Amino acid sequence: MTFEEIIAKQDARIKLLESQLELLKKADTKERLLVAKGENLRKNKLFELIKEAVKQGFKRMTRYLCGLLNV
Asked: What is the pLDDT of residue 67?
């Protein structure tokens, strides 16, 4: 692999990890608010988070994100 290809691959990996972190942060924040109210984060809210990630350009990760959030 050329230096440029290595850099591009690493940039893609960083973008993937950042998106995963952002999705989990959002899910955690929403779940903490609901737990404080004595409720659980519903599946439809998890799907909304995944849909938002897809809109941000992570369409190919849909299956992975569903697995990550256990939906």
From this structure: 82
Chain centre to alpha carbon of residue 23:
3
Task: Give the predicted TM-score (pTM) of the model.
Answer: 0.49
Residue 40 has pLDDT above 70, yes or no: no
pLDDT score, position 37: 67
What is the DSSP annotation of 7-40? HHHHHHHHHHHHHHHHHHHHHHHHHHHHHHTT--
To the nearest 10 degrees (0 to 180), the angle between helices 43-55 and 3-36 is: 150
CB neighbour list of residue 47: distance below 8 Å, 6 or more residues apart: 71
**Cα–chain center distance at 3:** 29
Distance CA 53, CA 2 (A): 30
Q: How far apart are the first and last CA of the chain?
A: 37
